């Protein structure tokens, strides 16, 4: 049996050659030597983490990676683990073309490996999908979306670029350009301190341009969050703290260029959908209330992301629907009557009583009530962290976080907002 059943090469002219405190598992860690990373590895289900970390090797010396290696041949056949994850050893081949250097991400879908592409002589990130039918099917949908985005990539649209994909030992493998840390990883390394407002502006501009591009193609990402937005470069500078020391100083990226990843949940926006989408903290109210969703759910997620970058922490840190809706009301004001009346009774009967949110009566605990009460209003949240452009940013967030999806600001409309009229971010 041939190990590599099918390979699809992406045209070279589409390639980009540029070499909270809430508990989350992250993958941007201090690099270790390859000798320290030996043994067999397999992915574990640790949440929907797909962050691509920075390269731990020097691309200007590619011979370092291939010296003394056998360029042909594959490792011995190994059974997958009990969950269908591919088991590998660092330093071995993933097909004769790619050498595995380290694992840089993992999640329910499988795992992401940093590899050396011997043919193009560059670092790549390879997403290896679990050998289970539903994940393989989802991976093929992601490949279709990525190829569609690539075909229309004329001016650099902010979406990660697929290099190649293939089926290897019953695992769909998707090859991507290598990128830097995610926004969440950068926040975490910065001790969840807020980004400067000019950096928030530039990230927001690029994110909206990417989403506008997707919406023009009638695609809805559905899972926008800081973990799925990566800096192109991992380089940063450190600014001294108030005492003039660098040890506790704040990190700032040398480049604010970003790309969006993880299109495995992308949906077509030509119809209204009813199933649950988005990671909890970035989930729009129409999704929770069972009202059906489409393009506007992406704009709600962007509003949540920009508010998080502004403050350093996710605004809606919760894992329960009623508490989530109560947090929205605390930060943004009461949910409108027309939305509550239209709410799907199957989804909302536990949350709505006598035409209003069943809060605090329906709270699961006193701690839940306290968690809601400690949240500031949106205006106060922004003004605590922004010393200029606060008014424009507040207005933008209010329009992105509009409860009614039919009234929520669209991506191209948001790009024309006064908040984005100022000068571009510079260190």
Protein described:
Helix 4 (197-216) runs antiparallel to helix 6. The strands form six sheets. The protein has a seven-stranded antiparallel β-sheet, with helices on one face. The protein has 13 helices and 17 strands. The protein folds into two domains: 4-177, 2-Layer Sandwich (Phosphorylase Kinase, domain 1); 183-421, Transferase(Phosphotransferase), domain 1 (Orthogonal Bundle), CATH 1.10.510.10. The protein is 29% helix and 17% strand. With 427 residues, the protein is an alpha+beta fold.
Write the layout of secondary structure elements.
Elements: E1 4-9, E2 40-41, H1 63-66, E3 88-89, E4 93-94, E5 98-107, E6 110-117, E7 122-129, H2 133-151, E8 162-168, E9 171-177, H3 183-189, H4 197-216, E10 219-220, E11 229-231, E12 236-239, E13 250-253, E14 258-260, E15 267-268, H5 285-288, H6 296-311, H7 321-332, H8 337-342, H9 345-348, E16 352-353, E17 356-357, H10 366-373, H11 378-383, H12 390-400, H13 411-415
Antiparallel strand pairs: 1-8, 2-3, 4-5, 5-6, 6-7, 7-9, 8-9, 10-15, 11-14, 12-13, 16-17
Helix pairs in contact: 4-6, 6-12, 7-10
């Amino acid at each position: 049996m041939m190990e590599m059943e099918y390979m699809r090469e992406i045209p070279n002219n589409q390639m980009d050659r540029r070499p909270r405190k809430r508990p989350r598992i992250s993958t941007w860690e201090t690099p270790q030597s390859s000798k320290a990373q030996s043994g067999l590895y397999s992915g574990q289900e640790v949440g929907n983490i797909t962050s691509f970390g920075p390269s731990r090797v020097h691309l200007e010396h590619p011979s370092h990676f291939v010296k003394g290696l056998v360029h042909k041949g594959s490792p011995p056949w190994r059974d997958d683990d009990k969950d269908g994850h591919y088991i590998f050893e660092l330093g071995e081949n993933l097909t004769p073309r790619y050498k595995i250097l380290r694992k840089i991400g993992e999640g329910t879908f499988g795992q992401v490996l940093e590899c050396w592409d011997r043919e193009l002589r560059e670092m790549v990130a390879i997403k290896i999908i679990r050998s289970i039918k539903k994940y393989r099917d989802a991976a093929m949908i992601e490949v279709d979306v990525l190829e569609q985005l690539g075909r229309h990539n004329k001016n650099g649209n902010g979406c990660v670029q697929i290099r190649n994909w293939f089926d290897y030992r019953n695992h769909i493998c998707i090859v991507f350009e290598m990128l830097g840390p995610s926004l969440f990883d950068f926040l975490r390394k910065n001790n969840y301190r807020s980004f400067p407002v000019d950096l928030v502006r530039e990230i927001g501009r690029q994110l909206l341009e990417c989403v506008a591009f997707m919406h023009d193609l009638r695609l809805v990402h559905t899972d926008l969050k800081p973990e799925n937005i990566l800096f192109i470069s991992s380089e940063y500078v450190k600014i001294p703290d108030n005492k003039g020391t660098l040890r506790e100083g704040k990190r700032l990226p040398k480049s604010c260029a970003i790309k969006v990843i993880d299109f495995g949940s992308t949906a077509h926006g030509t119809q209204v959908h009813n199933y649950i989408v988005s990671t909890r903290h970035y989930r729009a109210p129409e999704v929770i209330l069972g009202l059906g969703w489409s393009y506007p759910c992406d704009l709600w997620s962007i509003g949540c992301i920009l508010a998080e970058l502004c403050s350093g922490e996710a605004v809606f840190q919760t894992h329960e629907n009623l508490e989530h809706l109560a947090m929205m009301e605390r930060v943004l004001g009461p949910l409108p009557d027309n939305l509550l009346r239209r709410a799907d009774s199957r989804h909302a009967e536990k949350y709505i009583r006598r035409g209003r949110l069943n809060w605090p009566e329906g709270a699961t605990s006193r701690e839940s009530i306290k968690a809601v009460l400690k949240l500031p209003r949106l205006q106060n949240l922004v003004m605590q962290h922004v010393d200029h452009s606060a008014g424009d940013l507040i207005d933008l967030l209010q329009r992105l976080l509009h409860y009614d999806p039919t009234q929520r600001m669209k991506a191209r409309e948001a790009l024309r907002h006064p908040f984005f009229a100022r000068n571009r971010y510079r260190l």
